[in-house]
Amino acid sequence: MPKTAPTGSLRIQGLEVAIQGKKIIHEIDLTIPAGEIHAVMGPNGSGKSTLCYALAGDPQYQVKGRAVLDGEDILAMKIEERSRHGLFLAFQHPVSVPGVNVFNYLRTIYNTARKPQAPLSVAEFGKVAGAEVARLGVDPAFLSRYLNDGFSGGEKKRMEVLQMALLEPKYVLLDELDSGLDVDAIERVFDSLRRLQNERRFAVLAITHYARILKYLKPDRVHVLHKGKIIASGGPELAARIEKEGYEKITGEKADEGR
Amino acid sequence: MDAGRENTRKKKQPAAGPSPLGAGSPGPAIAPSILPARATMGAGAPVPAAVVPSPAPRTSARAGQAGTVGDIAASLSNYRELARNPPNFSYKVDQKGLSEKVVREISQSKGEPDWMLAKRLLSLRIFKTKPMPTWGPDLSGLNLEDIVHYVRPEGHSTRSWDEVPDYIHKTFERLGVPQAERSFLAGVSAQYDSEVLYHNIQKELENQGVIFMGMDQAVKECPEMVKPYFMTRCVPPGDNKFSSLHGAVWSGGSFVYVPKGVVVERPLQIYFIMNYPNYGQFEHTLIIADEGSQVQYIEGCTAPHYSGASLHSAVVEIFAKKNSRVRYTSVQNWSKNVYNLNTKRAIVDANATMEWVGGTLGSGTTMLYPGSVLVGEGARADHLNIALAGEGQVKDTGAKITCRAPNTHGNVISKSISRAGGIARYRGFVRVDPGCHGCSVHVRCDGLILDGKSGSDTVPRMEVEENDAKVGHEAVVGRISAEQLTYLRSRGICEEEATRLIVAGFIEPVIKELPLEYAVEINRLIEMEMEGL
Fold it and tell me: Measured between CA atoms, how close is B392 to chain A, in angstroms?
């Protein structure tokens, strides 16, 4: 439980996103107060992932509108600046970077995030990383591997959570954290995530196709995205309804399922 | 192996043509997959001649003629004395062009035995008749008519700090190279003071019966060990234009002999005997690892080595006898005015393992293709190489592996980085002789191109004359992936830092095989290169 309730918000106003001239997101308004968990659900192709990557700052997207993080518009910022402002994206498919040692990499991103504080030495960071690894139940052998190289689906996602734990973001974007995982792996990843969120009280914008993952991560609000627009918002009951009835009733037409 | 038969075999004409693979390579066992994303220069240039040794004695163990430990100890102490007070090798040259007179003067000034003079003169005759190689990088800036200029020893301490280019100064500072070492590397001083360390290591080696001394001295003090191996069947003078030049004018380098069954724990570093005049320009390295022995030899250094001479042409000959294991590591960072044209080769006997680990960072034009001739059953060769091609640099590097016995295996990993207009080319040659069953050679070369001005390509050639041979060539040339950059930047690090991480990761498979201090320095050098100093 938090000692003090977090303040601030991520306010998305009139956000439009296009890739290679093709508009994917049409004027989205969405406010995520600090510490809240929001789920964005929708059928395939509705623009869920695009929303995530555009907010995180992936340079291949063209954006319009505003995304105000604790009073500052982040849309004009470079992707790394957004991270330093407390935004974190857990990738659906984390890319492997062969030859880059996980421990050295984590130390690099940790020390960069700590600036202007003095960087931690190898030994000092060893303690920090060791503690997080133990807390998240990650195999310490992780640290001596190459970044995401030859990692299983579950290992990749745990690597994302480990980075999240070290960078201490205030707003976390989860792009289909459950994808490619079996039930056991989903439980393990979400268990670490839930414990981390309980303790740090970061806000979450969780992109998901399936309502079932929301039993691992209880949302405060649920939004339904369809064809690049938010067509419904509500409490957890909305997710329950989608699980029972599918998207069709809500979208009013046949969702393009089955990719 | 039948030396006579080898000698009479006609060299295959290299395949020219649009395919960079040797077209018409016999044998079905080639599994090529070539994905050159970008090739700036014409591929298909042939690889230099295959390894065809001259008629020479068979691989009977000459090492048995090695002197006793007592002799060796005596020569070592002589050597140390010599190293402290190097003889004056300077000689006057009064004519242009490399003449017999000049070569005789060199030999005489060194006080060499007749057989070495004869070798030099033979080399000179071959040099005069061989044309300049035209299959590789442009060498038109190299004026061999004025070869005497290149051959003249630089003397001991003739350069002043003002003559050392500014970028070398800067790099020394950034790398934190100690002042004494800077002076040596910049050619301001001919002395590298490593006396204490040198002494301790020599003592260890003496106790094991290992010989590690300057090549000039070895010729005089242990000719019975040197003569059968020196430019005979490993790198004969006629191997190529520059090996013949080398044979005529070589000077310096080192000689290593490791007795049967001896494991040398500590890598032998040329640093320890570098306080010899004229190091580096035409140095000759001869390493003999007797049966069952193990040795690592490390040459060169990562700090930029300033040279006034614009041609360097070294020869390295390695004999890895039965069941031995030899690792030869070289890191080269000559200043960018240098043509670096070397010939390095190992003859690998039954169940022996030869490992080549190399980093080519400096020089303007480099041609370097370490070769492994696998002559005994079960022999194996591993080649690891990094080439960094920056502004004005052409790195034409690769590996040559020849399987002359059954069940021999080779593995090549070559990594190159090109930036700021640099060209990195992998040029390789693989051959499996007929009758050599159960052989495999795998070549993997990865080129990373950091900007639109630079280039990378691969020119592999294969001759496979045995049906069950497994020979593969994989080449991937690419740029830094946008996906990787986005991922790393999303963790808060800037694009430059992310690029550095990716590049460091790219060369990691080779870097991790280097001694730690080299690994750290190479990473730093590459970072500096990428920052443009």
Answer: 28
